Amino acid sequence: MLSSMVKEHHAKQSVKKEIQESKRKEACAAASDMTQALVDHLNVGVAQAYLNQKKLDAEAKQLHTSALAFSKQTQQWLTLVESFSSALKELGDVENWAKAIEGDVRTITTALEIVYKGSQDQSSSSSQ
Fold it and tell me: What GO CC terms are in its UniProt record (predicted)?
């Protein structure tokens, strides 16, 4: 009787251990599934943030390239405007030079006319 009670007790303990082991395995599997679901959920956000960062980096690189091109073009425009301004100044200088030469030529012409008239007057008075 005692031995049958001990055998019965060991049998019940063995059944309880098997049930406990199976529940432990189920709990571990459920915890693993839950952990995987949480990681997957977090990874979606991280993956989206990573994709957004890649897009931002690409757009920043494109913006930098565009800014460099714009800077280069602006520098070319400034050079062109400075060249144009310099050419206008030279035209103004040439115009002033031409006016000065014209004034000098008129002065010389007037002087030559006066001398010519004076010599004509002397020639006509000496021939009389």
Answer: BLOC-1 complex
